[in-house]
Design goal:
- The chain has 220 residues and is mainly beta.
- It has strands at 7-15, 21-29, 34-42, 48-54, 64-71, 77-83, 90-96, 107-108, 118-125, 131-140, 143-151, 162-163, 173-180, 186-195, 197-205, 211-217.
- It has a four-stranded antiparallel β-sheet with strand order 1-2-3-4, with no helix packed on it. A four-stranded antiparallel β-sheet has the order 5-6-7-8, with no helix packed on it.
């Protein structure tokens, strides 16, 4: 609903089983030199529920970019994004209930303590509220790899971050995407350069988080 000179873009959307949906986007403030994440809730008829709301809770002029969003069967939802509030790019997220109330503060997803950059998050959530966030991560000697983190329906981490791409060469992995079924099994896919030219690879996981086989090439 911005009517000023702010630049708006990079939308993301999620919908629950009853047709309610949420749209998130970035809003670039020309005068304050910050990029923020905003969102808007809608009912199943497309009528706005309340007004636009700011998702990131930092008070510095940081850049928040590339939002992704997922919703469970009850209308609870998670927004995740790339965030520079700590000086480097981290992955942050925020949980909301079905009424749009924030459940706790923003939380950092990547668990490394260094200065590596984490970018391009993707998220999937099942109907029970369990979710997984994946992203591109440079913690491994600055070699871009795909990492992920599992959460339960209270946004509590299930184990530590884990590396998804299983290649050991100095190659670039990028642009993850993720999907999850009702029992908590999930698949992560990404752009992979292990054989020089870009290919699409994927990895299946059990609901326990254990890999189901190894990375596999998606035929083209």
């Amino acid at each position: 609903s911005d009517s000023g000179s702010n630049v708006i873009g990079y939308p993301a959307i999620a919908m629950d089983g009853s047709g309610r949906f949420v749209i998130a986007w970035i809003e670039i403030c020309d005068q304050c030199y910050s990029y923020d994440i905003y969102a808007q809730r809608y009912n199943s008829s497309g009528v706005p529920l309340g007004s636009n709301f700011k998702v990131n809770d930092d008070t510095v002029s940081a850049w928040q970019m590339y939002p992704a969003i997922a919703m469970d069967g009850d209308g609870d939802f998670i927004v995740t994004w790339e965030d520079s509030r700590n000086g480097n790019s981290d992955i942050y997220a925020q949980r909301y209930n079905s009424s749009g109330f924030a459940l706790g503060p923003n939380f950092k997803v990547n668990d490394d303590t260094g200065t590596a950059h984490q970018i391009y998050p993707a998220i999937a959530m099942n109907s029970s509220g369990n979710f997984v966030i994946a992203w591109r991560d440079r913690r491994n000697n600055n070699i871009p790899a795909i990492y992920a983190q599992r959460y339960n329906d209270f946004s509590m981490p299930r184990g530590p971050n884990f590396k998804v791409s299983d290649d050991s060469a100095r190659v670039m992995d990028a642009l993850p995407s993720i999907a999850m079924d009702g029992s908590g099994r999930f698949v992560i896919t990404w752009q992979d350069y292990r054989y020089d030219s870009p290919d699409v690879y994927a990895q299946k996981y059990k609901s326990s988080g254990s890999p189901w086989g190894s990375n596999f090439l998606v035929p083209n």
